[in-house]
Amino acid sequence: MWNKQTAAWICVLALLSACSSESEPEQESGALARVYDKVLYLDDLPADLVNKAKGKDSIPLLKAHVKNWVLQQVSMQKAKENLNSDIPEIEKKVQDYRNSLMVYEYQRALFEQLLDTTVDMSEISTYYENNLKNFELKRNIVRLRYVKLPLELENTSRAKSWFLSDDPADRLKLQEYCAQFAENTYMDEESWLSFEDLLKEIPLSNYNQEHFLRTNKFVELKDNDFVYWLYIHAFRIKNSVSPLELEAERIRSILINKRKLKLLEEVEGSLLKEAEAKNEIEWFIE
Q1: Model confidence over 142-173: pLDDT tens digits?
Q2: How many CA atoms lie less than 13 Å away from 66 in the CB half-sphere?
Q3: CA distance linking residue 170 with residue 163, whole number of Å
């Protein structure tokens, strides 16, 4: 009796049979291909292949799957013939991989069930403060606001005053102005940005980055087409300590990984004790 997966391919097989020559020998029911002593049946088709196939589109999909299976079987046979002396070593590697995969899947299920992945900010801050030497910046970073306007715009003085202001009402006016006229803007002053990324947007080159950051707060730059306004809210210099905001996710991953290792150690210890209590383990070395 065919299962549901097989039934889904009956029509496909019928279409394929209709396309085949009547002179071909009658094939075994449900068989798709044979290589040496191996036969591929409809029941062997993976469920995801059935789900992907629809109507006439099933035919090329099915043919491709059968061809891949045939090539795999032919290649396997040739490999056995040419690697006969190495087969025990290959089998050992396969077994080792199988064992590792089973342990990995067991551990993954274990972590999903038992691992607490909630890390509050106080834990992150504590780890950060205790390990500052591990968080050295590799690049200069800034927190800033930035506007790029067409040089041809007139009467930009009021917009500049809004740009320099910290008043929420002025910020709103600036946003409305930029939405209409600006070529580009960056207003997220709470997030750190690589200074190298900023340099891709502004006409500033052959300049000492550290000196520029230390000696400028508001900067206006121009090229042939645009005017650029920068207001540097904060900065950190390369080789100084990286800010917590940039490292929080990394620290969170570190702390969770530490919990994983601790949980794994506890579970492995429990497994050993349980097996020893049942006399399932016998040590032959001291």
Answers
A1: 999 999 999 999 989 999 999 999 999 999 99
A2: 19
A3: 8
Any idea what the Cα angle at residue 273 is, between residues 270 and 274, rounded to 5°?
85
Q: Which amino acid is at 107?
A: Q
**What are the DSSP E strand ranges found in 11-63?**
31-35, 38-41
Architecture label for domain 138-236 = Roll (3.10)
Note whether 193 and 201 are within 8 A (CB). Answer: no
Residue with structure tokens 């551990």? 107
Burial of 35 (0-12, 13-18, 19+ CB in 10 A): middle
Share of the chain above pLDDT 90, in %: 67
- pLDDT at position 89: 87
Residue 141, helix vs strand vs coil:
strand
pLDDT tens digits, residue range 117-148?
999 999 999 999 999 999 999 999 999 999 99
